[in-house]
């Protein structure tokens, strides 16, 4: 059975920068949970950041800076490496990550100005997973992820 790496916050774990979770209620996710497919991880926690923590955004050049001006790039990169190791240890070929996150966003991220403006791009973890051959979806793409998973399992 194919395992799926998932952002811990999407399972309701209070790991986000603001100390909250973003529990996702969806029949596809519920089915995967019941099947024991989900491997939960928060890359920012894995990288050594606490909860709560200052909001962070990626800036041009890939640096990740908090709203208070601290450079947390190293923690984000460490968390991404940890996520990759967990995914590889569990033979995950697919990940469901939190949209727009500086770690997990797979299509767009905030632009680094803390103005709420989104730009095309990927978070640090999403980028590393994708470069390593793991297909990344966000929480609004569960039907596409389910279809991809069916294809993976059909081919194996």
Task: Please provide a written account of the structure.
With 156 residues, this protein is α/β, with parallel strands linked by helices. The protein has 5 helices and 8 strands, in the order E-H-E-H-E-E-H-E-E-E-H-E-H. The protein has helices spanning 27-34, 43-46, 73-89, 124-131, 142-155, and strands spanning 4-7, 38-41, 56-58, 64-66, 94-97, 108-110, 118-120, 135-138. It has a 4-stranded parallel beta sheet with strand order 2-1-5-8, with helices on both faces. A hairpin with a 5-residue loop joins strand 3 and strand 4 (64-66). Helix 3 packs across helix 4 (124-131). It starts with a strand and ends with a helix. Pfam families: 2-thiour_desulf. InterPro entries: 2-thiour_desulf (IPR007553). It comes from Neiella marina. This is DUF523 domain-containing protein.
Q: How do you describe this structure in short?
A:
With 156 residues, this protein is of the alpha/beta class.
Q: On the 0-100 scale, what is the average pLDDT? A: 97
Q: Helicity range of the residues?
A: 25-40%
Q: Which class best fits the helix and strand makeup?
A: alpha/beta
Number of beta strands: 8
Lateral arrangement of strands in the main beta sheet: 2-1-5-8
Q: What is the rounded Rg?
A: 15 Å
What is the CA-CA span between the terminal residues? 10 Å
Q: What is the overall number of helices? A: 5
The dominant shape is: globular
Return the string of H and E elements: EHEHEEHEEEHEH
Low-confidence stretches: none
The major beta sheet can be summarized as:
4 strands, parallel
Our estimate of the beta-strand percent is 15-25%
Protein name: DUF523 domain-containing protein
């Amino acid at each position: 059975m194919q395992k799926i790496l998932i952002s811990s916050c999407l399972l309701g774990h209070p790991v986000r920068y603001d100390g909250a979770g973003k529990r996702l209620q969806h029949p596809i996710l519920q089915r995967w949970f019941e099947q024991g497919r989900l491997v939960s991880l928060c890359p920012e926690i894995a990288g050594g950041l606490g909860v709560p923590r200052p909001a962070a955004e990626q800036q041009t050049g890939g640096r990740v800076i908090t709203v208070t001006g601290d450079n947390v790039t190293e923690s984000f990169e460490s968390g991404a490496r940890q996520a990759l190791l967990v995914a590889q240890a569990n033979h995950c070929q697919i990940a469901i990550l939190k949209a727009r996150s500086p770690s997990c966003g797979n299509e767009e991220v905030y632009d680094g100005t803390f103005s709420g403006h989104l730009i095309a791009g990927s978070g640090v973890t999403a980028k590393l997973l994708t470069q390593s051959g793991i297909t990344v979806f966000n929480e609004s793409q569960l039907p596409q992820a389910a279809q991809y998973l069916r294809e993976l399992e059909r081919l194996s």
